[in-house]
Amino acid sequence: MTSPAVSVAAGLPTREIAEILRDNRISAVPVVDSTGAPIGMVSEGDLIDRNDADREARRDWWLTLFAEGESLNPEFLASLRTPDRCARDVMRGPVITVDENTDLGEIARLLTAHRIKRVPVLRDGRVTGIVSRADLVRALAAEPQEPVPVTAGGVLAEAVAALDRRFLHRHHPAAAGVRPGGTPAADEAALTVADFRDLVADYDHRQSEQRDHDRRAAAEVRRRRVAELIDRHISDTDWRSLLHQAREAAEHGQQEFLLLRFPAQGCSDGGRAINSAISNWPASLRGKAAEVYLRWQRDLKPRGFQLAARILDFPGGLPGDIGLFLVWSGNVRPRSGSRH
After folding, report:
1. Is the pTM of this model over 0.85?
2. Parallel/antiparallel/unpaired status of strands 183-184 and 126-132
3. If you placed Cys at 254, which of 71, 98, 187, 249 could pair as Cys (CB 3.0 to 4.6 Å)?
4. Which of 146-160, 259-273, 298-312 has the highest mean pLDDT?
5. DSSP run (H or E) holding 184
C-alpha cells in the first residue's frame, strides 16, 4: 500500500481538494469523518462533475492542466465557482475497504468486482494507506520473500505462557466452614439482622458483577462481529447464493429477503442515519454491508429491486442490529429510509 494515506475532511472545499490531488500527484482521495473512518471517495471525475461516460473517457486530462504555464480549463473553473461545494457534496459512497492483512488476490478481486481503481486500507477503523491498481502491479512483480520460520520459543510461545500464568495465578477465595458474609456455620444462633443485610448486599454485589460481565461479553461479541463485517468481503459465490435464497423466498410468497444482518457499529455513525431515515444513509455503510449495497446498486436496482435498511432491535434504547432487505413488493415498509 501507499502510506501514509492522503485524506480530506467532509467539509473541505472542492478547490482545496483539487490542489491536494495536484500537489500529491494522485487522482482520488478518501473522505474521512472526525475519527478517521472513511465515509466516501472524491476523484477528479467528481470534481469535474461530468456524467459517468465522460469521467471514464477523460479521467486524466484535467491533471495536465495544472502543469506550470498551462491555463485552466474554463469548464473545470466553472465547476469550482460555487463556494458551498465541498467534499460531502461530490463524494461517492459507501467505500470498499480492506485491512492490512488482506490477501493481494482478494484485493484484485474487489477492484474487478466493483469496477474501482483503489481501496483504502484500514487500521483500527482508520485509513492508514491506499492500495491502487499500480500498487498491485508493483507488488505482484516483486520477488517473493523467504518465509520467516516460527520457532517454539518465539513470540507465540511467550504469549501462550503469559496466558497460562494469568489463569494459573487467578485468586479463588476459599472460606471453608464460613458462610457468605463471614458467618461461622456452627454459630447460626448468633445471626443478626445485620448478617442478613450483609447477605443481601453480597448477593446484589454478585449480581452487579454478573451484569457487568455480561455487558462486557456482549460488547466483545459486537466488536468481533463488526471486525468480521469490516474484514470479510462478499464473493461472487456468496452473492449468487443470496439471490438464490431470495428467489426461494419469493416462491414461498414472501415479498422481501434479509440479505445481511449486522451490528449498528458496522456503520460509521452507529446507525443514526438509518434510524432517522436520512437519505444519504448508504454513505455510512462499511465493509460487507457497503459491498451488498454496491452489488444491489449495480446488479439489481436497474431491474426494479429495492433495498431497505432497518434497525432490527434497540438494546438499551440504542440501535442494535441492522438489516439490509431486498424488496420486490413495490412497497418498502416504514422507517426503512431506503428507497434509494
Report:
1. no
2. unpaired
3. 249
4. 298-312
5. strand 183-184
What separation in angstroms does the CA of 134 have from each of 36, 82, 140, 271? 24, 34, 10, 35
Identify the DSSP state of 2. Answer: B
Amino acid at 311: I
The pLDDT of residue 84 is 64
224: Cβ contacts below 8 Å, ≥ 6 apart? none
Distance CA 266, CA 228 (A): 10
Q: pLDDT of 211-261, one tens digit each?
A: 877 777 766 676 666 565 556 678 888 899 999 999 999 999 999 999 999
Architecture of the domain spanning 8-141:
Roll (3.10)
Give dist(CA 99, CA 104) in Å, integer. 11
**H or E element: which one contains 178?**
strand 178-179
Quote the CA–CA distance of 224 and 239 in Å, as a whole number. 23
Burial of 119 (0-12, 13-18, 19+ CB in 10 A): buried
Cell of 88: 460531502
Q: What is the H or E stretch that residue 322 is in?
A: strand 321-327
